[in-house]
Amino acid sequence: MCFDSFCGDVRAPGDERAAKEKIPRQQLGDTALVTLVQQRTFNYFWKFAHPVSGLAPERTTTPDTVTIGGSGFGVMAILVGIERKFITRDEGLDRMLKIVNFLLKADHYHGIWPHWMHGATGKTVPFSRRDDGGDLVESAFMWQGLLCVRQYFDRDVPKERELRDKIGWMWSEAEWSWYTQGGQDVLYWHWSPNQGWAMNHAVRGYNECLIAYVLAASSPTYPVSPRVYHQGWAVNNYFLNGRQYYGITLPLGFPYGGPLFFAHYSFLGLDPRGLKDQYADYWEQNKAHTLINRQYCIDNPKQFKGYGPDCWGLTASDNHEFYNAHSPTNDLGVITPTAALSSFPYTPEYSMQAMRYFYDKLGDRLWGEYGFYDAFNETVNWFDYQYLAIDQGPIVVMIENYRSGLLWRLFMSCPEVKTGLRRLGFSSPSL
What we know:
Strand order of the largest sheet: 1-2-3
Structural class: mainly alpha
Strand content: 5-15%
Largest sheet: 3 strands, antiparallel
């Protein structure tokens, strides 16, 4: 799992309100509210971006430490900002050139970036004592975004050509095959020049890492074989499921589906509509996962305060103790707005109900400068005061995919991605 925020600053429940600035809320219709949520959340990646790199800080309490995965979601959010006219195309283009020029010079390990880096220097900030090198999955999230950027800025003008060329150079230099640890039939998450393969974390499904295998198979220069996908990703005790929960069949994954970010991170660009391989229909997988997660909150077996049809969504986030990957089998009473809001494509009516509850009922306790704060627990009267890039990005992008299909259309238009998906045996209307 992708625990992107172990190192966050979490205060005691009584301390957060002093850290919050009350943001006036308007009475809005549904469409206006959806746009406002997108715009406020987008501003995390626009206004709060690091001034040197343009990348997204890990969270609001770590402004100098930028995150590669969350910034990958952020570059997709910038495209949404252009389309929704929050910024101009030229403003977005200039920001993307800043980001790409920074990434060209930043630390990388066989073309793969670290999980965290210093926002002014591009030097690696270790995620843990042994995790001080390349992070394949976080880099996959960045590549998902950069390929969308390359497809979006398609005009025959010098600055857009420059941006496309620089993304192409980095893309061709990303050594996905290196991360098979000497040619094994599985991808490995981490490699470090100091620690080697000491983390030894094989990437096996089912979880948020599908995009890493799709991109590894799509690489124009360092691709992995289909066998790596079928023998590595798909061979695991937690891959196939097929059981029913609340009368809903779940094709893949953990009991009850696990945290909801599994249905989001890989699918910000990878279009699940009609996407199938020999293992699953990925639209049905993600919709079932979302409905099970919501139904669990309605059932509310632990009787936590606030849970119900309008207040649902368990995923990885801050909590009143620290940080955790919340799910029906790891329920601490914590609702995380990104869970329901990033599920808009799968459950638009239910996600809208949740948005209205968060905005209308919880109000200033949950709403701030960059939209909804990361998480809350009504049972212990705890409301976070922070924002996390990895949770903010999917809100903007998945709402847009529901509204216009923008990022799905861009990513699936990549010729290399089409080749990679075909190599792995996928079918899709986009192919």
